[in-house]
Specification:
Layout: E1 7-13, E2 16-24, E3 65-70, E4 73-77, H1 79-85, E5 92-94, E6 97-100, E7 109-117, H2 123-136, E8 138-146, E9 149-158, E10 161-167, H3 177-180, H4 190-203, H5 215-228, H6 250-263
Parallel strand pairs: 1-5
Antiparallel strand pairs: 1-2, 2-7, 3-4, 6-8, 7-10, 8-9, 9-10
Helix pairs in contact: 4-6
């Protein structure tokens, strides 16, 4: 079971309640992080809010949230205003609705979290809710406050646990029809399809996490290691890009690609 808990609370379905814990399913902990420094002194640079007119630093207690009503005209919102519209979903995932598992497209999913029983007492209730969703091929829809903002979330059974997906807001998802409807739906020539399928077969492999590793970070680590030892940074390997202005027929390009695959 995960040792670092991001969130503690309760999972609720009608009168069934159990303690649960949640942790992000992904991490950015392995990514390189840089600090902004003063090049001349080597000291870290501190960020501060300043008044754009007076240029003076604004104290934290004097900072306020404002909604732009017009240019240089704002409506100020106080903490009481924000608290008055906040919902009671900071510590409870109350499943209000279930929908078919396949009815929510991938584009609505934002960030994934692992949900686990919080104690042995609630493990049975957790398992019943999870298994019932798995058998009925449904997912639960609830609301939850994450990072001080309320989000709609989807609960999806996954093995012995549950994955909680935060869902994008309705105004964040663009209608694909506006972009794809103008594309031609004419089927490609059978000859071309045969060649492309051969290319796909040649390059099909079992999924491996190394397929999505970050080569840029690996090269940055080499540069950092070289600088620590006082060596010159490794030379950048140049890769040949597509030749500009060189028009090649799709058929010829596919035949050359297949020949190159055999050579590999």
């Amino acid at each position: 079971m995960a040792t670092q808990v991001y969130w503690k609370g309760y999972l609720k379905l009608s009168l069934v309640t159990c303690a649960v814990t949640m942790t992000p399913a992904t991490t950015g902990g392995e990514k390189l992080k840089f600090h902004t420094l003063n090049r001349h002194t080597g000291h870290r640079v501190v960020s501060r809010y300043v008044d754009e007119v007076t240029g003076k630093v604004v104290k934290e207690e004097d900072e306020a949230r404002g909604f732009a009503r017009d240019e240089d005209d704002y409506v100020l919102l106080e903490d009481d205003d924000l608290e008055s519209v906040a919902l009671d979903s900071t510590r409870t995932i109350d499943i209000a609705t279930f929908v078919d598992h396949d009815s929510i497209g991938w584009i609505w999913r934002d960030k994934a979290h692992f949900l686990l029983p919080g104690d042995s007492v609630g493990a049975e209730a957790f398992a019943v809710i999870r298994e019932a969703m798995a058998v009925t091929k449904t997912v639960g829809i609830a609301r939850l406050v994450l990072a001080r903002r309320e989000r709609a979330v989807m609960l999806e059974p996954h093995g012995a646990g549950i994955v909680v997906w935060s869902l994008r807001y309705g105004d964040e998802v663009r209608d694909p029809a506006k972009y794809f409807d103008g594309l031609s739906d004419e089927k490609p020539a059978a000859t071309l399809m045969t060649l492309v399928r051969r290319l796909i077969d040649e390059r099909t492999k079992p999924w491996n996490a190394k397929m999505v590793q970050d080569p840029v970070q690996d090269q940055l680590l080499e540069i950092i290691a070289a600088k620590k030892k006082g060596r010159k940074r490794p030379a950048k390997v140049k890769t040949a890009g597509p030749a500009a202005g060189n028009v090649v027929s799709i058929l010829d390009a596919l035949k050359k690609s297949i020949a190159a695959e055999k050579g590999r």
